[in-house]
Amino acid sequence: MNPILSHKLLLDGCKTNMRQFRVRHTTSYTYENRVHRSRNLCLQLPRILAYQRVLQESIRVAPFPEPVCELSDGLGNRLYDFTVTAGHTYFEVTLDLLLEIHARTWGEGCADIQTAQVLQKDLRKPENLEAAAYMYPSVNVVWNDAIHIITNPLRKAQLGPHGCAQRIMEQIFSEWVFKSGVTNLHTSVNDLLIRKEGVCQDFSHLMIAALRDLGIPARYVSGYIETLPKPGMLKLVGADVSHAWVQAYDPLAGWKDFDPTNNLIPSEQHITIAFGRDFTDISPLRGLVSGGGRQTMMVSVDVAAVG
């Protein structure tokens, strides 16, 4: 394999409440028949954020692609666009990262969701305008009145957007069971309300639906958490694969992260790749192939703390 994109940035700064991680994410496809040509969009390059520094990054593709370029989608995520013109029956994309993740802090938010909704209407504020894209149903986040089993008690509570998000996260963690293999990309929010089981993607979609039903902008976050925890700490659910969680918006405090799969507020152990209205916006790798027939996909993720 050949390196086709590489970037190295060495940064100085405060090391307090900071951790560094190496990430390797490999996706491979084996095809029944020969693929003559493929066009691909890879959404695995991490976002540049105030709390996240990309020190090194590289993407390797086999067979070697041409042409290649980096793009930005309408949500500010980084897309790697490439075409493979050589015939092949095996295709592999490997991402290597070295990142520095700092602890996140949030200011005091609105006292209640009614106040937040009034403040959100001021679209002269760029943050409110951005948040407006995350207030409505989307491909994977469509709901009916059944969601009120979660949201109705919060309509009467004197809680701001982040307080409501905290309650929803805790409820999903306590009442829904993490179980892989029982849902798929097409599992609906209404199915999840009945099944009460799923994986991080499902719990994130469910939480987003509840927040949007309350009029709180909420977005899907894709990324990683460390594979091996610190000594004496429990391994987080979602390690060894790409992870997903939620950000909820408060017009005073901004966006805050919530991980309903693990019932925690993400900090230095969560690595952010992309933001979307739901998973459909930020599928890690998508493309079109000419030929190939049936295919088998394998994905492996390793996240290791440095030092």
What order do the helices and strands come in, and which of them pair?
Layout: E1 2-8, E2 18-45, E3 52-62, E4 68-72, E5 78-84, E6 88-102, H1 113-120, H2 126-131, H3 148-155, H4 161-175, E7 177-178, H5 189-195, E8 197-198, H6 200-213, E9 218-225, E10 243-250, E11 254-258, E12 270-276, E13 285-291, E14 295-306
Helix pairs in contact: 4-6
What can you see in these coordinates?
The protein has 307 residues and is α+β, with helices and mostly antiparallel strands. Strands 1, 2, 3, 4, 5, 6, 13 and 14 form an eight-stranded antiparallel β-sheet that branches. The radius of gyration is 20 Å and the shape is globular. α4 (161-175) packs across α6 (200-213). It contains six helices and 14 strands. It has helices at residues 113-120, 126-131, 148-155, 161-175, 189-195, 200-213, and strands at 2-8, 18-45, 52-62, 68-72, 78-84, 88-102, 177-178, 197-198, 218-225, 243-250, 254-258, 270-276, 285-291, 295-306.
Please identify, by name, the CATH architecture of the largest domain. Roll
Shape: globular
Rounded radius of gyration (Å): 20 Å
Sheet/helix structural class? alpha+beta
Number of helices, where a helix is a run of at least 4 consecutive DSSP H or I residues: 6
Stated plainly, the CATH topology of the largest domain is called: C8orf32 fold
The residue-averaged pLDDT reads 90
Total DSSP E strands:
14
Order of helices and strands: EEEEEEHHHHEHEHEEEEEE
What share of the residues lie within helices? Answer: 10-25%
Give the low-pLDDT segments. Answer: 1-15
In whole angstroms, the N-to-C terminal distance is 28 Å
Instruction: Profile the largest sheet.
Output: 8 strands, antiparallel
Count of spatially separate domains:
2
The percent range for strand residues is: 35-45%
- The CATH first-level class of the largest domain comes to Alpha Beta
